[in-house]
Amino acid sequence: MIAGLYRAGDSPLHRTRPGLKLLSLAIAGTALLALSSLWLAGAAMVLIFGLYCLAGFGLRTMIEQVRPAAFILAILAFAQLWLAGPSEALLFVTRFAVLILAAGLVTLTTRTSDLVTALEVALSPLSRFGLNVSGISLAISLAIRFIPAIGQILSELREAQIARGRKPTVLTLVVPMIIRLLKMADSIAEAIDARS
Amino acid sequence: MSTRDIVLIALFTALTAVLGAFPPLMIPALGVPVTAQSLGPMLAGGILGAKRGALSMLLFNVLIAVGLPILAGGRGGLAVYAGPSAGFILGWIAAAGVTGLIVERLWSGLNFVTAFIASVIGGIVVLYGIGVPWITAVTGTPLGKTFAGSAVFIPGDLAKAGVAAAAIVLIKRAYPMIRHAHSRS
User: Fold this and answer.
1) Where would one find the signal peptide in this protein (chain B) (predicted)?
2) What is the crossing angle of helices B87-105 and B112-120, to 10°?
């Protein structure tokens, strides 16, 4: 199993039901995109800071959340500055930062397994229309289990090629890797079918 | 959809996650990191075909959304979809679907050139066709500027389409996956 981005805790936010958090995020996101006042965006930033503190996180966690998007946001903010002026650029950055922080907060305070369950519950009415919900659950749990296994196969292949004096490249690793996965698929599928 | 199809979909989802852990290649002239991860949609579509390929990229997006750090650089979670470049991740579903569709159509005479064209149309034309207007839609930045900003990644993506095409052709020879599905439809 690979570790999710969830951070264990016992705050009111950790204890809120995943469905409610997702719904709040959807509403907050829609409201944020419609926000056109810098003061309101600033207030939203203060509010999200308060929520991070409530969940037991600090400024460092907040920076970690925004950092992956920082580069593209900086470029786009520069374009806004040039096109629409400084207050528009500041509004733009604040709005996106709050949105990313809000979405990140749901991920930080909700276990992956709880989100998967929420998804299954949300999809279950669609099984009446022919959606294979148990197949979806199976696919999710298989993929999560395959990630470390495939990582392991990959490092074995790499070591084997280095041992034979060859320099592994993406192509020389990916092709034997995929052929192995395709062969594995049959036996894994048989084992699953035999058990059910 | 058989159990085997579900297993194949999950395997390519996991493969795409593992490709994200490959050390990124720096193109010194451009200063942009090139990760192996965007091989994922081209390989999934080109090897499993349109339907299973697109579903494996949909599953990849589900795993990101439920909080797994499987994007290159250890990114993941719902914050990915709140950022301006979410279209480039969601676009992998269509990228795999279109690559798969073209490979299915050209299956009997598939060679490096046709596999490369399929990978470029699916993994670059379709992907940027979703990712670039997405940035414009959520940020209000004009389309020309967003495209100019995104274009620095195209040389790296062309190189990846070459790797994907070679893999698609080699694997078709060793272990063809599409023929059955295609003759049935």
Assistant:
1) none
2) 150
Query: What are chain B's domains?
Result: 3-184 (1.10.1760.20)
- Domain borders along chain A are 12-123, 132-195
Residues of chain B with Cβ-Cβ distance to A26 below 8 Å are: none
Q: How far is A97 from chain B (nearest CA, A)?
A: 8
User: CB A116 to CB B66 under 8 A?
Assistant: yes
Interior CA angle at A13 toward A136 and A29, to 5°? 70
Identify which has the larger pLDDT, A181 or B178. A181
Residue B31: per-residue pLDDT: 59
Tell the residue number behind the tokens 């037991």, with chain if given: A56
CA–CA distance, A51 with A46 (Å, rounded to integer):
9
Question: How far, in Å, are B4, B16, B40, B105 from residue A150 at the CA level?
Answer: 17, 10, 14, 30
Tens of pLDDT, residue by residue over B132-146, are 999 999 988 899 999
Q: How far is CA A7 from the centre of its chain?
A: 13
pLDDT > 90? residue B25: no
* B185: confidence class by pLDDT, cuts 50, 70, 90: very low
Judged by CB atoms closer than 8 Å, whether chains meet at B85 and A174 is answered as no
Of all residues in chain A, the one with the smallest CA distance to B60 is A143
Is a pLDDT exceeding 80 seen at residue B24? no
Interface test with B, best of A5, A71, A111, A157 (most B CBs within 10 A): A5
- Could you report the per-residue pLDDT of A166-180, keeping only the tens digit for each? 998 889 999 999 999
- CA-CA distance, B39 to A171, in Å (whole number)? 11
